TrEMBL record:
SMART domains: HTH_ARAC. This is Transcriptional regulator, AraC family. InterPro entries: AraC-bd, Homeodomain-like_sf, HTH-like, HTH_AraC, RmlC-like_jellyroll, Tscrpt_reg_AraC-type_HTH. Residues 185-283 form the HTH araC/xylS-type domain. It comes from the Bacteria. It comes from Chitinophaga rupis. SUPFAM superfamilies: Homeodomain-like, Regulatory protein AraC. One of its GO terms (molecular function) is DNA-binding transcription factor activity. PANTHER family: ARAC-FAMILY TRANSCRIPTIONAL REGULATOR (PTHR43280), TRANSCRIPTIONAL REGULATORY PROTEIN (PTHR43280:SF32).
Amino acid sequence: MLQKNTDIPYQQLPFVGQFNIFPLLGFKTELTRQPHRHDHYQVVWFSKGSGQHIVDFVSYELEDNMLFLLEPGQVHQLLDDAKEGHVITFTEHFYFSNRHEQATMYDFTNLFDATRGYAPIRISNRTAATFQLLAELMYREKSASGSSRSIIKHYLNAFLLQAEREKKRNAAQAIAPLKGDERVVLLRRLLEKNFRAQHHVTFYASEFSLTPKRLNEITREKTGKTVTELLHDRLVLEAKRKLSFSHQSVKEISYELGFEDPAYFSRFFKNHAGIAPQDFRDVMFK
């Protein structure tokens, strides 16, 4: 169990340099079953899986050939019954080691971008076979004498491009896919940048030269939520992360998230999370 006097914001993986790949079957620690986060990008491919994988406090039922893409700072935990597959970890610096690569390499950050809503990716059998081949090539190059960063990077690049194709296929096969609107994607990115300081719809509407009413109409049509609801979701998620992974008091967290009145923040959190902030923290450390 987590200890209240121990600060463990990031899990220490068997991370060699700025890239690593390792089998899921052989990787199991007490910490994997507890909420934790990483300071690098992580690709978790369950070739066989059952149980639960919880990402940012949302539980997903594991299936065979399911892929999870995690950005730095995302919270997750594995409550699994069985799992096989591979984990790939890498830093942005590993992938983009110079300006030329930033201009010419595939921009994987869009693949990991959850602004359209986070969801695992279901992988077809054909793509799973390709993933297995690319994983074996990465293992082989990583363990070779004088292994090449460039070769590993190209194998990784091919893996991520295949993942992007599957992500698009998943979206196309959705029962009721929402029509895209680039303004909603930009709004989510704007929220991500400003949610701590800007709690009013008028700020975000002005960025699009729209009235608050019109921006709310757009977001409700595309996401089923108003701007305020999207903002509140992000504030609650960040509050949960802070309550789980910091020693800051509830009062300090409320100020950091832009609430001038800690008592109002506590009411806000309980209204949206169904539990008071301190009670949520106590449950996490139980």
